[in-house]
Amino acid sequence: MKGKPIAAIVSAGLSKFGKLENYAGRELFAEAVYEAFERCPKIDPKKDIKAIFVGMMSESFEHQGHIAPMLSDWAGLLPAPAIRTEIACASSAAALRTGIFSLLSGIYDVVLVGGLEKMTKRSTVETTEILGMAADYPFEQWNGITFPGLFALMATAHMHKYGTTEQQMGLIAVKNHHNGALNPKAHMQKEVTLETVMASRTVAKPLKLYDCSLISDGASCVILTKLEIAKRFCDNPVYIIGSGHGSDTLSLYQRESLTSIKATRNAAKEAYNMADLKPEDIDVAEVHDCFTIAELIAYEDLGFCPPGEGGKFIEKGTPTLEGDLPVNTSGGLKAKGHPVGATGTAQVYEIYLQLTEQAEKRQINGCKIGLTQNLGGSGASSIVHIFRRG
Amino acid sequence: MEKSNCEEVPPFTIEQFFRFLKEKKLMAAKCTNCGKLHLPPKPICSNCYSKELSWIQLETKGQLLTYTIIHIAPEQFQKNIPYAYGIIELKNGLRIPGIIKDTEHEKLKVGTELEVDFETEPSPNWPQWPRYYFKPHISTQ
Q: Which of A304, A340, A269 has its CA nearest to residue A172?
């Protein structure tokens, strides 16, 4: 399997991300699916899509369980069978991986994978509580931790061990807002200065408001096919050449390290090995910046820089649009938005646009290899995929 | 610190951990086969699958490994904000997280000596567990 593609992407769709008061999650999902069909007119939705795999984190936001068949209905795909996957914020990367398994098993030849979350109708306090469910209940939630708090604990540990600064984390927010300002589907399309980031109010010290990703509504999807039939649907498919998944303890305090996420390192190792590639082969990446410190640690865990040097990596400008390894060209979770269940396949959507030269103002010219990294919880789940231009 | 392994050994469960907490005891499970310590306890050792376990009472003092000051919290902690939260490492290497009380937030740093402070009145809300906190450890020489 080394270096050989495992599946093809023939289309992708993304709803607008943001505070979309008039839309339910299922309606946003239908919008994402509609775009995917629009981009790929040779797909016959009623005939070609054999199954749906969809990620969503929580029933609590819309008080709605059993969403998979409902989404098949709203996307006009019944009687195609649908299954929901859930590993917190990595739920739709899990849907993608499950979709790949279904193709490799030989059961299906074309599947739609995606994700959604409708978050903004809840108050910030309610949302903090709902997202908190992805942490261990008796030993983290019960005794007062929050998600910003968990990543703040990692940030304090990283600052203490390596001398990483709040300014370095702030530069990641500045970069991602710059990219988001170029993305018409981003939740926040405005530049911010380092001064604004540094002056924003504390959420969980040392993390400030501008270190945190956005609470958003949105949906995303990708259409996958077996390799042999991809060109039946489009001339320039994107190939998935690596897929890796790591799990670790649900609780942060029980992990080997507080400054590195082992699940990401394990997922990256598996994906790089399958693709027969190294970190220096990556041209463009979308990584899980739920908080700026998460992106900084991802640089290190994905091998883009050595452990402890994530701060220098952003200071040098390597992950900017003009740098050698642009990261989060979409604006990331920070500016594009983070409807948690939609994020995994929304990252794939951006890489699909980049590798098919459709990313417009944020296009990285000539990029050939892309990577996505999607994190669940405080790092108990992490999924890495590697893509190649067809 | 080993608790004698007599006939009526309480089950190695999370519920039992909180019952001990109500008695102001911080307890972990120790696998008598491989020696692994489990906090929270597990009824089956996740390291070697042994069911041969014993309870050990832990030291309540430790060092702060990392911390944060939380300003946005869920409903039940609204009354506490801003509050300090940290992970402490106990003398035997086990770690435990929780809220740090009775401390000046500006003075907290990695390495600060803390000790566990027990709340013996269980919360009236589901699931009715008592909570524990950390407070600064003042050494009495």
A: A304
